[in-house]
Write a structure and sequence with these properties.
The chain is α+β, with helices and mostly antiparallel strands and about 180 residues long. Helix content is about 30%, strand content about 30%. The protein is built from 3 helices and 7 strands; from the N terminus they run αβββββββαα. The strands form 2 sheets. Strands 1-2-3-6-7 form a 5-stranded antiparallel beta sheet. Strand 6 and strand 7 (about 120-125) form a beta hairpin. The chain is globular. The structure holds nickel (II) ion (NI). Nickel (II) ion binds next to helix 2.
């Protein structure tokens, strides 16, 4: 297993639309293991392959309190969205230190393949519904901040660019 580097917004690669997984094989199972390890280490409750620069439709999620209930979604699709929506304060491992309110369907029905390549379906509500929609957005090349107003997005970009410049300065000192 290995920890994978997580792309940081506004990295253009986060806008790549991921391709469906053609075959759930050992390569995909290794990717799932590495993604899960990376998510738990971060720590986060969800990670899409896009975020680790692999552009295939793979997601890992764990919204349990103990962090012992890994959900693996390969080629996930949302087959139904509730009309009812809910606003939730979201964050993202690719958007360091930024949290903001996003409105999404409060319930969804999802179909996906598991690590054995078997299709399964489930209903999601609460945090799981938020997480599934947030992660599938990643596979479609969309980051949660892109749901916000242009004014907010501009402010976030300014703040992140400043943070990233400061991080680079610190890195340079360490290298010397
Ligand atoms: Ni995210």
């Amino acid at each position: 297993m290995a920890l994978l580097p997580i792309l940081q917004y506004p990295d253009e690669r986060l806008h790549t639309v991921a391709k469906p997984v053609a075959q759930v094989d050992d390569r995909i199972r290794r990717l799932v293991k590495d993604m899960a390890e990376t998510m738990y280490e971060a720590p986060g409750v969800g990670l899409a392959a896009t975020q680790v620069d692999v552009h295939e439709r793979v997601i890992v999620i764990d919204v349990s309190e103990q962090g012992d209930d890994l959900l693996v979604l390969i080629n996930p699709e949302i087959t139904w969205y509730s009309e009812e929506t809910k606003v939730y304060e979201e964050g993202c491992l690719s958007v360091s230190g930024i949290y903001d309110k996003v409105e999404r369907a409060s319930e969804v029905k999802v179909t996906a393949l598991n690590e054995k390549g078997e299709r399964f379906e489930f209903d999601a509500d609460g945090l799981l519904a938020v997480c599934v929609q947030h992660e599938i957005d990643h596979l479609d090349g969309k980051v949660f901040v892109e749901h916000l107003s242009m004014l907010k997005q501009t402010r976030i970009l300014t703040r992140l660019r400043k943070q990233q410049r400061e991080t680079k300065k610190v890195d340079a000192k360490v290298t010397v």
